[in-house]
Amino acid sequence: MPFMSSDRLAKLYDRIGSLQDTQYFYEDPAMQVLLQFGDFGSACNVYEAGCGTGRVARMLLSQVFAPSCRYLGADLSAKMVTTAHEAIAPWSPRATVVRADVTTYHPDDGPFDRVLSLFVVDLFDPQRIRAFLDRAYGALSDSGLLCIGGLAEGEGGAARLISEVWKRVHDVVPVVVGGCRPGSVIEELDRDRWRIVHVERRCSFGLCSEAAIAAKI
Ligand SMILES: C[S@@+](CC[C@H](N)C(=O)[O-])C[C@H]1O[C@@H](n2cnc3c(N)ncnc32)[C@H](O)[C@@H]1O
User: Using N-to-C axis directions, what is the helix angle for 78-88 and 6-16, rounded to 10°?
Assistant: First the structure.
């Protein structure tokens, strides 16, 4: 199945970046799970891979993080980085954003006690998911938590139909669905390295997502 290359994804999100936050209706339920079980209030140093417009960062910085908690966001799209930079400016310099491909990037401000990524791994083929998870593993402190969410397959009724149609559209013209393909985040986690602390699926208007929290073994 043809996943989009990093170059194409960067160009796509440069173009549609300003529309990203209209997707909150199916993204927020996964984010709520991570917020509920990720204990972000006690975090000291958080890395967000694929931070988009900085919407999640702004909410965490204004409502959840302790006043000393540091934040680093990374995104491939120059447009997203500029937008996120503006969104988190009130919390600079403890909050920063860089332009980077999270499948190859080694953030040097670690170790981090949370690595957060929402609706990014569903853009990647299995090889790039593994590359990202390797980087996340290296960036996390020994007691840190990986907090990850993505588009999931619907299990029945309309949700199943929608995800089947979505996958077919993706496999023919991935750009139409923003390059995302429903899958399973937890299936990609190597159980010799990761212990699943919590996993939950949420569906909203027929679109399902999976959110997982995992600790290093
Ligand atoms: C669907 S958006 C999700 C944005 C944000 N996490 C949210 O939930 O609102 C996917 C984001 O991943 C970014 N992205 C795609 N491939 C990437 C890569 N290899 N490295 C870093 N960011 C990437 C895109 O530019 C885009 O901002």
Answer: 50
Q: Which ligand 1 atom is the nearest neighbour of the CA of 31?
A: 8
pLDDT in tens, 144-155: 999 999 999 888
Cα distances from 44 to residues 18, 57, 97, in angstroms, run: 30, 14, 17
Q: Is 77 in the pocket of ligand 1 (CB under 6 A)?
A: yes
Interval 114-125 mean pLDDT: 96
State the Cα–Cα distance between residues 146 and 58, nearest whole angstrom.
19
- In ligand 1, the atom with minimum distance to the C-alpha of 77 is 25
pTM listed for this prediction: 0.95
Cβ(83) – ligand 1 distance below 6 Å: no
- Counting from 1 in the atom list of ligand 1, the atom nearest the Cα of 103 is 19
Contacts of 111 (CB under 8 A, 6+ apart): 45, 139, 140, 141, 142, 144
- Give the chain's length: 217
Domain 6-216 has CATH 3.40.50.150: yes
Give the distance between the most distant pair of CA atoms in the chain.
48
Whether residue 52 has its Cβ less than 6 Å from ligand 1: yes
Site of tokens 């990014």: 120
Q: Is the pLDDT of residue 108 over 80?
A: yes
Name the DSSP class of 92. Answer: T
From the CB of 144, is ligand 1 less than 6 Å away? Answer: no
> What does the domain layout of the chain look like in residue ranges?
6-216
